Amino acid sequence: MTTDKEIISLMQEEAYKPMSYKELEKYFGIESANEFKDFIKLLNQLEESGHIVRGGNDRYGVPERMNLVRGKLQAHAKGFGFLIPDDRDHPDVYINAHDLNTAMNGDIVFVKITARSQGGGRLEGEVVRVITRANTQIVGVFQSQETFGFVIADDKRVSRDIFIPQHAFMGAVTGQKVVVKIVNYPEGRSAAEGEIIEILGHKDDPGVDILAIVRKHQLPEAFQEDVLAEADAAPDSITEEEIIGQGRRDLRSKRIVTIDGEDAKDLDDAVNVELLENGNFRLGVHIADVSYYVREGTALDIEAYNRGCSVYLTDRVIPMLPHRLSNGICSLNPRVDRLTMSCEMEFDENLKVVNHEIFTSVIKTSERMTYTNVRKLLTGEAEPDIVEKYAYLMEDFKRMEELAARLRSRRMKRGAIDFDFEESKIIVDSEGKPTDIVKRERSVAEMMIEEFMLAANETVAEHFSWMKVPFLYRVHEDPDSEKLMNFMEFVTNFGYSVKGKGNSVHPRALQALLEEIKGTPEETVLSKIMLRSMKQARYDAQSLGHFGLAAEFYSHFTSPIRRYPDLIIHRVIREVLESGGTLSDKRHEYLSSRMSDIAQQSSERERVAVDAERETEALKKAQYMLDKVGEEFEGIISSVTGFGMFVELDNTVEGLIRLSDLTDDYYNFHERQFALIGERTSKIYRIGDEIKIRVARVNMDEHTIDFELLDMKPRKEGGFSRGGGGGKPPFKGAAGFKGFRGGSNKGKPEKGKGGFADKGKGGYAKNQGAGGGERGKDRAGAGGTGEGKGRAERVGRGGAEGVGQGRGARGAAEGVGQGRGARGAAEGVGQGRGGARGATEGIGQERGAGRAAGGAARRIEAAARADGGAGQGRGEDSGRAEGGVWRAEGGSGQGKSRRGKAGSTPWSEKRGRGGAGRGKAGGPKLSEGGSLSARLESVGAGRTESGVARGESKRGRGGIALGGEAQAGGGSSAERSAGGSDWASGVNALAKGGRRRSDDGDGSKKRRR
What we know:
Blueprint: H1 4-12, H2 21-27, H3 33-49, E1 53-54, E2 60-61, E3 68-75, E4 81-85, E5 93-95, E6 108-116, E7 123-132, E8 137-144, E9 148-153, E10 162-165, E11 176-184, E12 193-202, H4 208-216, H5 225-232, H6 240-245, E13 249-250, E14 257-260, E15 269-275, E16 281-288, H7 299-307, E17 311-312, E18 317-318, H8 323-329, E19 337-347, E20 353-364, E21 367-370, H9 371-379, H10 384-389, H11 394-414, E22 424-428, E23 434-439, H12 444-467, E24 473-475, H13 481-491, H14 507-516, H15 523-532, E25 538-540, H16 564-578, H17 585-625, E26 632-641, E27 644-649, E28 654-658, E29 667-670, E30 675-678, E31 684-686, E32 690-699, E33 704-709, E34 795-796, E35 799-800, E36 803-804, E37 812-813, E38 816-817, E39 825-826, E40 886-890, E41 895-898, E42 917-920, H18 932-938, E43 950-952, E44 960-962, H19 973-979, E45 996-999, E46 1005-1008
Parallel strand pairs: 5-7, 13-20, 14-21, 36-38, 37-39, 40-42
Antiparallel strand pairs: 1-2, 3-4, 3-6, 4-5, 6-7, 8-9, 8-11, 9-10, 11-12, 15-16, 16-19, 17-18, 19-20, 22-23, 24-25, 26-27, 26-32, 27-28, 29-30, 30-31, 32-33, 34-35, 40-41, 43-44, 45-46
Helix pairs in contact: 4-17, 11-12, 13-15
């Protein structure tokens, strides 16, 4: 019978040309009808899974030979995404928001490569097919519009709201957290459509927040009946017949203890240390034999595979196995018989393992010890009754302490990296409200158990690696050379250095740095940056080594109650032991075929668990800080970005100080130094600095906290003077001038002198309000960002790469000017107050308060503000063009935007060098029927206020900000443009050539270079 491997291998051959199913049938010599039927079924399965592709001519081939890449889509909250290819050697592929088709975050997709950078390193593509849907359900907040509704997803990577028809409400009302089943996926500009299948409760009800996170990550809470039935069938105790019949080694006479946290209930590891007559130490690590009770192919086994691991949230645990097993017969409770898998290791005086054994056993633990009591006993802090109770174990604990210290010393010498991060524990009351945040202590007791588990994991991994049996390993590959080089360059800012070059750096050099910075203010920060420069550990069927531990062999052996990979290798170990050290060829082949799939599934489920745990922690920390708004704290700058800096408090709570809140100066972000530097004052904020902050805001929707610096002096109104003395008072709203000097020029702008905002290197961009100030002058800096309630914060890559954020702005990135109410945008988008949710990559959209093009929760509440009219504007088309030209033409009350000329390649030299809008105003006077604000409000279009800038800056040279609201009583389109009052007031720029035309109000056009 033909196998899937044979088909794929054939298609991967260099000489293979796509064949039809008839040609493949002939090639493989298929004759019987049943064999042909199975062959066609196998082809269909391979096609559905995305391992092979059927072309338009019904010929089959593998994706990589047909210019397609298979992988997982990682969407961004701003609308675009990246393909993470299955082939780890293939670079990630950028996917524009308009090229996602119906794909959503987490989907397995085929992507066609459409563009490559000159070096071939950066790729862009479009989704051509969704193979597997990751999002069948969405959790979010319901908003009713009577005849229809929308669900705003909690996951911000779902950038469009879900449309809910009236018949699918299921009784939900506005403000409730709901679970939505997706019926139709988003296509083009149409939003996804869904039906409500579960109402979790009002978003402010106690417990709903955590429940929403559980549903969002699709964490299974309850076990199915068949799973519980199998768990209930497990015995409560162990019989002597079981022990003897299985040939288990009896260790019940030994002093073996468990050491865990006070609140632990699933005790899956126990230890003992003996001093042998030859002076060597014997360490015994005994792990609950869960594989004896969870057999392959059972409902318990399938459920454990699907869950992957236990998930530990703030106020609950979602276990991998039912409590009947995890807290019962599998838990190594004190003074009862339990079946275990043991690894005993003998260490000589040099801490080399000179002998080891791995075997099935039965134990009876002497005590259930806690980390706190063991620490107190070893440090002499224990109360007299504790000392008396555990006196018979004191010698054992001292031997454990000595052995663990020596094991740790040896591990550090070989180059293992030890990240000593401070972890926190959030204390909650009966309703789930956080009452305190305390640091978790990493005492000698925790470090003892950690060293013993590491030793067992390494010994087991090496043993079975040499036996060449199918196995699962925990691997941590060498860091990405570019990231590591950036880190090595970064530490030089603190006066440190790392020996080595790129990925040739030995982990010993990194550990030496950690030891050097221990106890310094920058210790936590540098440790985190180092960790971010490394790859994530994962599971693999091959032993690829563990960089962080400097270990050649490593596996997870010690927690089969809460990790499926541990359970799997216990099952393999049992089979090998029971079959006399070998496996049959058939069994070897079957296990080998399963290990890669189990490794991938376990890695993915671990990632989901970590994300859920982090989100829960962020939620509870935000809740804890809610009543701390206005209070002052001391903290340390933990991260610096283009949009602000993160500050971590002593209780591990982290908050953001936005650049828009740094009002004493204009700060530029220096990426390599991870620093913000003031243009005028040269004040520097960098990672590791200690600062005093005040809690400014807590956003419970985003689970974020905003801080503000104490004693922050406000920026002077309208700007600040720059250059020599003798200048006039600071000008208002001026940016984009190429020079500004004091002295004889008296503070006036001058052509080509200096670099205030020269070709993308400027930073101050503010617009004149409606009808005031100097007539007709567009005040956006080249490379700056227009400011409503925001400003440009950073310049780079030939344009503004900073973020100006306004009140209520939800988030932005790379060259975004935002006004109040703007939900978010990316890379070169200017938005005004009440503006659209945004577009990406230099795309302008005009949809009033609409949350997304083509459909949003509040799109009916506002009309777009298009050039030249007060009525409703469509602005749905976007211009992504070589010249970056985006046109809006006004009519009698309606404005339409048309797509610009296509042509530019996003990663090419031309990217972002296109300028911004070309505005043509036409139609009747805006004064007819009152001001623009009044007229829009009269048709329910929301608020429009004067003086609100609309800025757009792209990644190349140029960048403009559109003017404020029209004056009541304005005249023709030419008059409106001259008066600086229309949205397109005085603007006619083509940034590609670096030129700028400004209407000085007298009808004449002047060019500036």
